[in-house]
């Protein structure tokens, strides 16, 4: 994990989300604190856990539909930290737009292998619809690759979240993404 982060940081990635769906809370916190220590110059977002975000001194937390509510997470992290929320359809996006979330993620845009039971794909048209409904920063997530990120950005996303397309060659892939999106 640390070598992977090192590769991404080396080429200019500045924001990463720490996502660990299987470890215990104590293990997640230990790893998060080590990441914070080793890579203090990066902006870190904790996935799902507002309490661990604060305990690890991360800059923000990202919650899903089945996690602590946006307003509950805001109570835990305060207003100094970033708060994002995942949405999977336009009804969820409308609801998220009325919250204190700093940004909204929409997806999965394309087929994804990083979730066991992904929600139905919303496609590029889902990004367009989402853009029409919110002025908050919009993050496209789910199946984003170097080959399709341009179409997602053209549809109205402000940024993309990527997992799978970074795994095999993190430095080269990240450099390619940064060139395309830069």
Number of domains: 1
How are the strands ordered across the major sheet?
1-2-3-4-5-6-7
- Rg: 16 Å
Count of extended strands: 7
Number of helices: 9
What is the fold named in CATH at topology level? Answer: TIM Barrel
* CATH H-level superfamily: Aldolase class I
Q: What is the first-to-last residue Cα distance?
A: 26 Å
Question: Summary?
Answer:
The chain is 43% helix and 16% strand. The protein has 182 residues and is an alpha/beta fold. Strands 1-2-3-4-5-6-7 form a seven-stranded parallel β-sheet.
What does this structure look like?
43% of the residues lie in helices and 16% in strands. The chain is an alpha/beta fold and 182 residues long. The chain has one domain: TIM Barrel (Alpha-Beta Barrel). It has a 7-stranded parallel beta sheet with strand order 1-2-3-4-5-6-7. Strand 6, helix 7 (149-154) and strand 7 form a beta-alpha-beta unit. Helix 5 packs parallel to helix 6. The chain starts with a helix and ends with a helix.
Give the arrangement of secondary structure elements:
Blueprint: H1 2-10, E1 15-18, H2 25-38, E2 43-47, H3 50-55, E3 60-63, H4 70-77, E4 82-87, H5 90-97, E5 103-106, H6 123-133, E6 138-141, H7 149-154, E7 159-161, H8 164-167, H9 170-181
Parallel strand pairs: 1-2, 2-3, 3-4, 4-5, 5-6, 6-7
Notable traits:
182 residues, globular, TIM Barrel, alpha/beta, seven-stranded parallel sheet, 9 helices, 43% helix
